[in-house]
Each structure stands twice: as structure tokens, then as C-alpha cells.
Amino acid sequence: MKNFTEVTIFVLKGFTDNLELQFILFFLFLAIYLFTLMANLGLIVLIIGDSRLHNPMYYFLSVLSFLDACYSSVITPNMLVNFISKNKEIPFLACATQMFLAVTFGTTECFLLAAMAYDRYVAIYNPLLYSVSMSPRVYVPLITASYVGGILHASLHTVATFRLSFCASKEIRHVFCDIPPLLAISCSDTRINQLLLFYFVGSIEIFTILIVLISYGCIFVAILKVHSADGRWKVFSTCGSHLTGVSIYHGTILFMYVRPSSSYVLDHDMIISVFYTVVIAMLNPVIYSLRNKDVKEAIKKVCGKCLLKNKGSFQHKT
Q: CA 143 to CA 35: how far, in whole Å?
């Protein structure tokens, strides 16, 4: 096997070489990133600060917000620097670290969304025993297992990818160090890597999607037993946001990774990967807060307190 340190620095080519377009993209993604951080971290603070949100459903949601903030932070800052810098180089170790963290947070989110589906099933199927069935002895191991699964999956692909030789080229046609564009520039035989990517990502997707489908199948059966229209609508509104987030996230991952390597079109795949790493991280807090009555009431409560505080300060000055 050839020495995999033949290339010590990679170059992230990004979207375009057009300077005007790069500046437009810089401000666009800067706005997206700032909103992502404020929305996700704000949701975490809201859940911690409001006692009405101290239940497993919102603990899962706070972990999801933390993952989205981290996921976006792994990708976006370096991408922003590359938009305004002529030097688009990234060291070998930094590239490996970025890929490891991106795969870790992405895979952990897959497992967490499955755990959230199971949590909704427990809450709706037997609400009276929800606090017992979803006690800390249950939800803490589910969250921990999600992280462990993400770390193990990332470790596998990071080791497998960076053991390859990159003597052919150091230019990565992407905005971050993702697996397919790295395999595309390797001069080693990447068939095993492609099989690992297809089978492991496919297995994780099948496993997590099955949990979601089974959980929501049971929820649908429970909904049929609810006689009042208001009761059914309440259940639908509770689960609708989660189903929306799951559908968008899993749909893009399936399209990106669970397909033959011959069908990769790096320019198109770059846009899709930015969508699920950056844009979805921005959309999740919007999806989960705007369609959640408890979160909206907690936001109104905080806004009301802020208005009263500002009004009191203004009256004191006058």
C-alpha cells in the first residue's frame, strides 16, 4: 500500500470561481449560519429555562438543536472563509477531522430522529404512563447510543478514506471534505470504500426509517381510536413537525449516499450536501417551534417578560 501522506494539503474548489457570486454566497450563507446558531441555541435555552418544557420530548429536541448547531459549525465557517479568500487550502488532518465530525453529527441525527419517533409513539399510545415509560433510564441511553453509533460510523469511514493514496490530485470539487469527492480524487482502488459507504449508510437508513415507520404506524392505529376531531388534530399537530423533519433529512441522505458511485455528479451533489448539512440545520428549529404549541407559548412568555422589562427600564429613566 502506498503512503497515504503523499498529499498533505487539499484544496476545496467550492461552488464557483466568479468573485461577484462568491461575495453573494458569502453573505447568504453568513445569514443562514447566524440564524441557525441563534435559532438552535435559543431553542436550547428556552427548553432549559421553561419548566413546562422539561420532559423527554423537549430533551430530545434540545439534543437535535445542539447537533444542528454543531453540524453547521463544522461546515459553514470554513466555507465562508473560502468564499472571500484566494487560499482555499485545508490541511490533511483538518480535512480528516472535518469529515469525521460531519459524519458523526449526521449519523447521530439519523439515530436521534428514530428515537424521537419512538418517544412520540410512547407519548401518544399511553400518555398516562409516558413519564414512567420514557424515564431518564430510557431516554438517556437512547441519546447516548445515538452518539456512540455516530462516532463508530464516522470512525469507520474516516479511517477507510484517509488510508487511501491521494497522489492523483489534491483539488476537492466540494465546499467541505465529504466522502464521495475524496474518493473521486484518490488514485487507490476505492471499490471497498464505495461498498462500505453504500452498505453502512444503507443499513443505518433502513434501520432508522423502519423505526420511524413502525412508530408512526402504531401512532396511526392510536389515532383511529380517538373519537373526537380535536383529539385527532392534536395528535397530528404533535407529530407533523417530526415527520416533516424526518422526510426532508432522510430523503436527501438517501439520494446522496445510497446509490451507485457511477451516478455521482459532483456539482449537483455539492448543492444537495450543503442543503442537508447547512439548510436543514436552519430549518429544523423553525419546523419544530412554529408547529408546536408549547414552544410557541414559551416564546411568547419570554417575549412578554422582555417587553415588560424594557418598559420598566424606560419608565425608570423617565
A: 25
Q: Are 39 and 200 in contact (CB under 8 A)?
A: no
pLDDT means per 10 residues, the chain with 318 residues, are 63 84 92 94 90 88 94 94 89 94 95 92 85 91 96 96 84 89 88 91 92 88 73 68 78 72 62 83 83 76 68 56
142, 120 contact by CB (below 8 A)? no
Strands 171-172 and 9-12: parallel
Alpha-carbon distance of 294 to 246, in angstroms, equals 21
Residue 30: CB atoms within 10 A of its CB come to 16
Q: DSSP string of 23-79? A: HHHHHHHHHHHHHHHHHHHHHHHHHHH-GGG-SHHHHHHHHHHHHHHHHHHHHHHHH
Closest listed residue to residue 39, CA positions, set 217, 306, 286, 254: 286
What is the separation of C-alpha 93 from the centre of its chain, rounded to a whole number of angstroms?
A: 23
The model carries a pTM of 0.87
